[in-house]
């Protein structure tokens, strides 16, 4: 099966909703790939894989290694790699150098970066030089030290306006798609109606052109998840149950049995 391309994703505006999930490892990428249009190697790997308090600590090396693993584990979905905090905000040139490195080292189709109006010249710079960019507006977790937390964005009229303006600037700069995270629904709908590229919602609206979730959240790997996460499985209980059974059997010498040993 041919991999979905950025132009084909762009053409899905207003059409069949785009399905995106995060992936960080090869086996999970293989399992998600048949069902997804896009796999996002999110910098949420900070919390999911590395136990970091937030995404600010993520490095280029982490994104590159996990990005390459996800590309190796997928055949159908377009792979998008998050640019880590500090790798793109300094200047368009810095962003280009790091985005080019990520595409070269991983084989991914595109990068994603957080930000609005201020980052628009950078998005334009990358796009004009062969690097497709997915935008990310609203709740932007890399700004946690400015925002002070992960609360819903756009509650004041002024903040709502600036999020819409951010999305318009990002779209105008050439982003092929925009993630809208953690905003009042009316803002997500307004952006979706106004921009020409597909919007991907997370804590946004069913009217977005697609949806994304952190895979480990929707699988129920974590106790605490944001309101916008729907848990489709309780993986934590499944894993705990299996591991408890194994531990009990080792302690009672009921594992291994003759099925698992080489009788000699
Ligand atoms: O890092 C991430 O997982 C993300 C998605 C939640 C959009 O940016
Ligand atoms: Na991210």
TrEMBL record:
This is 3-methyl-2-oxobutanoate hydroxymethyltransferase. Belongs to the PanB family. The lineage of its organism: Bacteria, Pseudomonadati, Pseudomonadota, Alphaproteobacteria, Sphingomonadales. Catalyzes the reversible reaction in which hydroxymethyl group from 5,10-methylenetetrahydrofolate is transferred onto alpha-ketoisovalerate to form ketopantoate. Its cofactor is Mg(2+). It is an enzyme of class 2 (transferase). Keywords: Cytoplasm, Magnesium, Metal-binding, Methyltransferase, Pantothenate biosynthesis, Transferase. The gene is panB. Pathway: Cofactor biosynthesis; (R)-pantothenate biosynthesis; (R)-pantoate from 3-methyl-2-oxobutanoate: step 1/2. Mg(2+) binds at residues 43, 82, 114.
């Amino acid at each position: 099966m041919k991999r979905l391309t950025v132009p084909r994703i762009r053409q899905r505006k207003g059409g069949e909703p785009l399905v995106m999930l995060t992936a960080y490892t090869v086996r999970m990428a293989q399992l998600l790939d048949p069902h997804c249009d896009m796999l996002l190697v999110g910098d949420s790997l900070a919390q999911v894989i590395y136990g970091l308090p937030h995404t600010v600590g993520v490095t280029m090396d982490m994104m590159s290694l996990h990005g390459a693993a996800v590309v190796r584990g997928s055949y159908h979905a377009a792979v998008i790699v998050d640019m880590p905090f500090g790798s793109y905000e300094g200047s368009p040139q810095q962003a280009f150098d790091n985005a080019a490195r990520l595409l070269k080292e991983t084989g991914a189709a595109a990068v994603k970066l957080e930000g609005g109006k201020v980052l628009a010249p950078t998005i334009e710079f990358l796009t004009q030089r062969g690097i497709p960019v997915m935008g990310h507006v609203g709740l932007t977790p890399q700004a946690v030290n400015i925002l002070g937390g992960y609360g819903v964005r756009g509650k004041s009229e002024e903040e709502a306006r600036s999020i819409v303006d951010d999305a318009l600037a990002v779209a105008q700069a050439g982003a092929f798609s925009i993630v809208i995270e953690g905003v009042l629904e009316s803002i997500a709908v307004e952006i979706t109606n106004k921009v020409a590229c597909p919007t991907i919602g997370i804590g946004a609206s069913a009217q977005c052109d697609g949806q994304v979730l952190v895979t480990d959240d929707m699988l129920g790997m974590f106790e605490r998840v944001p309101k916008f996460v729907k848990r489709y499985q309780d993986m934590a209980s499944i894993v705990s149950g299996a591991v408890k059974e194994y531990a009990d059997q080792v302690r009672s010498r009921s594992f291994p049995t003759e099925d698992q040993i080489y009788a000699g």
